[in-house]
Specification:
Largest sheet: none
Shape: elongated
Helix content: 55-70%
Strand content: under 5%
Distance between the termini: 38 Å
């Protein structure tokens, strides 16, 4: 099956959602690269070196505090979006596998939407059934 092209998907074409999806995917991928870590480390080192030049002033401290706060704030939303989409895709794939296997118990399709206590109860049922089979 060919890979899904976001730009060609009917619900995403030319929309804010498609742009946000592309941006959040790129940011999540890029932020996890070693080169990105090195760049961030260099920024911190340069900031630290400039401390004596600016006499460790409040403005000097404010630069790094403001920058890191803004980046962290935006990264939370971008990475959460990426993780949500990944999790949803995995759930859809698992649901399809459950539907495709004749011996699978279809009552597990969509259990991620249940409350935590109900999922834990189903998990315990699975553990109990597995113990019976051994």
């Amino acid at each position: 099956m060919p890979e899904l092209d976001i730009d060609q998907h009917p619900t995403c074409r030319n929309s804010l959602n498609a742009a946000f999806t592309r941006i959040s995917t790129w940011v999540a991928r890029t932020s996890g690269m070693p080169a990105t870590f090195v760049v961030a480390l260099l920024v911190i080192i340069i900031w630290g070196i400039t401390g004596p030049i600016f006499h460790f002033s409040n403005a000097w401290q404010l630069v790094i505090n403001t920058g890191t706060t803004i980046i962290t704030f935006l990264m939370v939303f971008l990475i959460q979006n990426t993780q949500y989409r990944d999790s949803l895709a995995v759930q859809v794939k698992l649901d399809e596998l459950l539907r495709a296997i004749d011996t699978a118990n279809n009552r597990f399709v969509g259990i991620e939407k249940l409350e935590e206590e109900e999922v834990e109860r189903l998990q315990q049922e699975c553990v109990d059934e597995a113990k019976k089979e051994t």
